[in-house]
Structures are given as structure tokens and as C-alpha cells.
Design goal:
CATH class of the largest domain in chain A: Mainly Beta
Largest sheet of chain A: 8 strands, mixed
Helix content of chain B: over 70%
Number of strands of chain A: 22
CATH topology of the largest domain in chain A: SH3 type barrels
Structural class of chain A: alpha+beta
Strand content of chain B: under 5%
Distance between the termini of chain A: 81 Å
Radius of gyration of chain A: 31 Å
Oligomer: heterodimer
Order of helices and strands of chain B: HHH
Number of strands of chain B: 0
Distance between the termini of chain B: 35 Å
């Protein structure tokens, strides 16, 4: 029967503790092995690291006699009996769970496990909760006072019962890249594609692929539609081409076009040849339309000011005004309703009289693009006029965005 | 005429008008006259249907110009 000071404690509190075989010190606790036996995983072994040159020990929980505040006593004296590696498929709390990302289905966000609570019950030790709170991290770093103070300021506990934790993938310890994921509350197959897409976007590349490979084709296809283009590209690049084509084949024409339009043209063409020959031309047509729309390349982060603005105030505030803008080389002059009145090149602004209004110095005959313009229209116009940006106007001449030359330079339109 | 052109003419008109007032204050009657001609020329180019719309913009510009000149 094991003796412990507390019936509940955190795994981080016992890691690093000295381990004695009766009275002989043999090493330090480096990890805790758990096995899934029921609702809560049971601690099966302690892993003890020994001085350099000696193999680690795998000590069964049944041999642990005491866990005190400073040491762990093993009720045995024959060290050689326990020289073994953890069994395949076992979960190591420190190596596989601590500091690893976890998918929190309550918020559909990725959390980080800062600690795992252990509970002693009927002489068995169970992993009962995972803790996401920064307090636990601070405690682990030795900043107990700060952790206590923060806990007082923010009393809400951020932990979740292990009942809701499912290791993923199954062979967690054998997984390449040491990726350890857990899905809370639901099987991954039960997560709505929209939520799963959010989760995938949060993960790093290897973890994202690990989750994506777990999905059934239909679910994978639905999820692929929902993730942002950057992630779509990455997932498709990582998939076998035939599998990627199969996923795209399961989508509607419009959705398939959306996904393919996000890919480099050669990759999209390769996949188009592999999908259903009847649907491929329709998808191609949609990609062309999609690809051509100039709105895809436009930004709404540009400088627009009223015509009465004095040049000196623009020059004085320019650094502040331009800070979060994508297009900074022109100042667009608009009325109170957003009607585009003119444009001032920043170079003209600098040489203008400081007391002149923007209305005085603006070019009122603005070369612009219509909302329904294509990428080709924009490229033609950039070539013809050599502007560095072009405003996009709606049918009432209101400015709705600006396309910058640097954002379309080098892109070859599909329609020619 | 595009609204932008009307705004530009109104702004230029206000600049000429402000300059005319300044020159008159300095005793340069001939210079003030030249600026007033330019001011009227700018106003004259604004189509009548936009002139009313530009009146308040012109007044605002003129006020700001005069304030800046006084500093």
C-alpha cells in the first residue's frame, strides 16, 4: 500500500523528485506512464532516470511505497528487474501530454496542457484532469507567489476532466515528430467541418496533417472546403494526388473551384485532369471566373481623406496614417459619402504648398477599375498607365478598394 | 463635369480669393484684381447645377485659407 502526503497532486510537482530503492538513491523521476483502463487513465509505471551510463528504470506503480514532499521510495532493492522501456502505445504524461496542444471543443480553440492532476483512489493513481491555466505554468517555473496572486485576480479554474480527453493518434508515443493531440468531448469525426477547419488552422503543419489523415474522406472533403486557402494548399500538397482529387470530386462544382483556385495553376491543372471528366470543364470555368475577379486582389487599407484637408496636416500625420495601410503611395480624396473625387500622389503632396488643400492639388480625372473588372483588366491598365495602385469603384463611383501593382505583378491571368 | 473637378475648381477659387484679400490688405490693388479674376474664372467653370453644392465647400476652404494666412 502506497503512502502519500496528498491524495491529489499535480504531475509537475513530483517530476524530478529523488527516487530511492529502500535506502539507496537510484535516480530521479522523469515521467509517468498511464494506461487507459476506464473513464480515467491509471498510472501504471514511473520512469526513473539514472546517472549517465545506467539505463532508465520502469517501475510499476504497485512497487511505489511512499511519495513524500521530497522523495519517492520504491519497495524493492533489485534495480536490474526494472530496466525496461515503456511498452509500445503507452502514454507518457510529461513527454506526450505536458506542454502539448489540446483541442478544446468548448471554444474550438487550441489550448496548451500545463499540468495534469493525479488522484489517489483505492491505492491506485489516476490522471483525473488536464490543466490549461497559466498559474500551473508559473508554478512549474517556480513563480509560486506570482501564480497565487494571479489566481486571486482571476479565480476561474481552467481545467477539464480527463473523461473528455482522447489521445490522438492511437499510437501516441510512436508518432513521428512527437505530436500529441487530444480531442475533448467529441470524437474527431463528430466535429463539424467548420469547427474542425478552425482547429486545423490553429495547429502547426505536422499536427494539422495528423488530424486531417484521421478523417473519413467525406468529412475530410467537407473540412477542406472550410479551411483558409493557405491551409488548403498545404494539405493538398501533402496528400497523395489521387486522394486529393478524390476529396475534390466529392465537392460541389463551386466548392471544388474555390479550393482549386487557391492552388498554384500547375497543381490545379494536375488535379483537374484526375477528377470526374464530366465535371472538370464546369469546375475549370468557375475557376477562371473566380481567378479573374479583381476584388480578390484588392485591399481596403488605403489612405482616404476629405478634399478640404490641408497638405501640411497630411505630411505631418503621414507616418501615423500609413502605419496599418497596404497602399500608402497615394492619398484618395473622397467626400463624406465615400465618393472618389481625386487622388494625390504622395510625391506631389510633398512638393505642394503646405497650405494647399487636397482638392487643389489632386488629380481629379482618376483612372480606376470597376468592381466587376478582371485581373487582366487591371494588368492591362497597370501596363498602360504605370500607376502603382488603382482604385476600384462601385457603380456610384464610391471607392470600395485599391489594388496595388505589387500584389498582381507576375500573376498570369487564366483568361487571356 | 465630375464632382472631383468641381471640388478642385472650388478649392482653387478659394485660394485665389484668399490671395486677393491678402494682396488688398497689403495695398496691392492690381495684384488683388488679378487674383479676383482668376477666382471668378474658376467659379465660372463650375456648372450652375453644381455651384450651389460647392458653395459651402468654397466657404470652408476660404475660411481655412484666411486663418492660415493670419498665422
Amino acid at each position: 500500500m502506497v503512502a502519500v502526503l496528498e491524495r491529489e497532486f499535480f504531475v509537475s510537482e513530483i517530476l524530478g523528485r529523488k527516487v530511492f530503492f529502500r535506502k539507496e538513491r537510484i535516480g530521479r523521476l522523469t515521467d509517468v506512464v498511464i494506461v487507459e483502463t476506464g473513464a480515467f487513465p491509471e498510472v501504471s509505471n514511473f520512469i526513473v532516470d539514472r546517472p549517465f551510463g545506467y539505463p532508465s528504470l520502469l517501475i510499476p506503480w504497485s512497487k511505489i511505497a511512499l511519495i513524500s514532499a521530497t522523495e519517492i521510495i520504491v519497495d524493492d532493492s533489485d534495480v536490474a528487474t526494472y530496466q525496461a522501456a515503456p511498452p509500445e502505445g503507452s502514454i507518457l504524461l510529461k513527454d506526450h501530454v505536458l506542454d502539448k496542444k489540446i483541442l478544446d471543443m468548448d471554444d474550438h480553440e487550441v489550448e496548451i496542457v500545463y499540468d495534469v492532476k493525479l488522484v489517489l483512489q483505492n491505492d491506485k493513481l489516476y490522471a483525473s484532469e488536464v490543466d490549461f491555466s497559466h498559474n500551473r505554468l508559473l508554478r512549474r517555473l517556480g513563480l509560486k507567489k506570482l501564480a497565487n496572486w494571479l489566481a486571486e485576480q482571476n479565480p476561474g479554474e481552467r481545467s477539464v476532466s480527463w473523461i473528455y480527453v482522447q489521445p490522438l493518434p492511437e499510437k501516441i508515443g510512436a508518432f513521428t515528430g512527437n505530436v500529441k493531440l487530444n480531442v475533448l468531448k467529441e470524437n474527431i469525426g463528430d466535429i463539424h467541418p467548420v469547427d474542425l477547419a478552425d482547429i486545423l488552422e490553429e495547429l502547426d503543419q505536422q499536427q494539422r496533417l495528423a488530424v486531417f489523415h484521421q478523417l473519413e474522406p467525406e468529412h475530410a472533403s467537407d473540412t477542406l472546403e472550410e479551411v483558409e486557402p493557405r491551409v488548403q494548399r498545404e494539405l493538398i500538397e501533402a496528400l497523395d494526388t489521387k486522394k486529393a482529387a478524390d476529396l475534390i470530386d466529392r465537392m460541389s462544382h463551386a466548392q471544388a473551384a474555390d479550393v482549386l483556385a487557391a492552388l498554384p495553376a500547375d497543381k490545379a491543372d494536375e488535379l483537374l485532369h484526375l477528377i470526374d471528366p464530366e465535371t472538370a470543364p464546369k469546375v475549370q470555368q468557375l475557376i477562371d471566373q473566380h481567378d479573374e475577379h479583381i476584388g480578390l486582389y484588392a485591399s481596403d487599407k488605403f489612405i482616404k481623406l476629405p478634399p478640404i484637408t490641408i497638405a501640411r496636416s497630411v505630411i505631418d500625420d503621414y507616418r501615423h496614417m500609413a502605419r496599418d495601410k497596404d497602399v500608402v503611395m497615394y492619398v484618395y480624396v473622397v467626400d463624406a459619402d465615400g465618393l472618389l473625387l481625386g487622388v494625390v500622389d504622395i510625391r506631389e503632396l510633398i512638393v505642394a504648398g503646405r497650405d494647399q488643400t487636397l482638392a487643389e492639388i489632386m488629380a481629379e480625372n482618376v483612372i480606376s477599375l470597376r468592381e466587376d473588372a478582371t485581373l487582366k483588366d487591371a494588368l492591362d491598365m497597370f501596363e498602360r498607365y504605370s500607376f502603382r495602385a488603382l482604385p476600384i469603384l462601385d457603380q456610384d463611383e464610391h471607392i470600395v478598394g485599391v489594388v496595388s501593382f505589387k500584389d498582381v505583378r507576375g500573376i498570369t491571368p487564366r483568361l487571356n | 463635369m465630375k464632382p472631383g473637378k468641381a471640388y478642385k475648381l472650388a478649392a482653387l477659387a478659394s485660394a485665389h480669393r484668399a490671395k486677393a484679400i491678402q494682396l488688398l490688405d497689403m495695398g496691392d490693388g492690381a495684384g488683388a484684381k488679378r487674383e479676383d479674376v482668376a477666382y471668378l474664372d474658376c467659379l465660372g467653370q463650375i456648372p450652375s447645377m453644381l455651384r450651389h453644392q460647392m458653395a459651402s465647400f468654397f466657404e470652408d476652404c476660404l475660411r481655412i485659407k484666411l486663418e492660415l494666412m493670419r498665422r
